[in-house]
Amino acid sequence: MVSNYLILRMLHKDDEKSFNRAIYEFKQIQPDWEFAFDYNGTLPFSQYVQNLKDWSQGLNLPNGWVPNTYLVAVVGKDIVGRVSIRHTLNKNLKIYGGHLVME
Prior knowledge:
By secondary structure, this protein is of the alpha+beta class. It is 30% helix and 21% strand. Strands 1-2-3 form a three-stranded antiparallel β-sheet, with helices on one face. Strand 2 and strand 3 (78-86) form a beta hairpin. It is globular, with a radius of gyration of 14 Å. The termini are far apart.
C-alpha cells in the first residue's frame, strides 16, 4: 500500500528514477544546492545506496566528512526532499556547515 503521508526513510536501491527526478527538479529551483552528496551518476545506484549506509555507520567516509545519516522524504513513491543528519561536527562544519546543536 502506498501512503500519501510524508515519510522520512533511508534511500532504497529501487528509488533510482525518483531520486534522479528529485535531483533534476531541485536543481531547477536551487542550482547551487546539492541534493545528493557525492553522487554524479557514474557509480551504480546500488553502490551509492550502500555508500549512504556505510557513511551512516562512519565507514568509508570521503576525506573530511563525518558520519551522517541521509534520509529522503517520500510521498507515495515520489521523493520530495531530503535531510542529512551529521552525527558529529568537525572544525569546518562548526564554522561553515549548516547544523543545529543540541546542548
